[in-house]
């Protein structure tokens, strides 16, 4: 009887250790699953950030192009204004000559 007594205890302690290990492994699997999901979410966020960057880059390039065109138009208008001033000055000179005659 005494020899049969340690066997059930040993079996119960093994079952207890096994149960602890299974619980530990289950916790590890759940932690791993959470980490994988976090990684997946991070990938989604990085992908969205990359798409947003491309959109912003296109907007910046379009803005640069518009600014370049506006600069050309401004220069053209300044030339036209200078030409009009010269023409107006010539008209004034002609009127002055006519009055001084």
UniProtKB/TrEMBL annotation:
Q: Which InterPro entries does this one have?
A: BORCS7
Q: Which PANTHER family match?
A: BLOC-1-RELATED COMPLEX SUBUNIT 7 (PTHR31397:SF1), BLOC-1-RELATED COMPLEX SUBUNIT 7 BORSC7 (PTHR31397)
Q: Where in the cell is it found?
A: Lysosome membrane
What is the designated name of this protein? BLOC-1-related complex subunit 7
What Gene Ontology terms describe where this protein resides (cellular component)?
BORC complex; lysosomal membrane
Source species, domain of life? Eukaryota
Q: Which organism is it from?
A: Periophthalmus magnuspinnatus
The protein's predominant localisation is membrane
- Give the similarity note: Belongs to the BORCS7 family.
Ordered alphabetically, the record's keywords are: Lysosome, Membrane
Keyword Membrane among UniProt keywords: yes
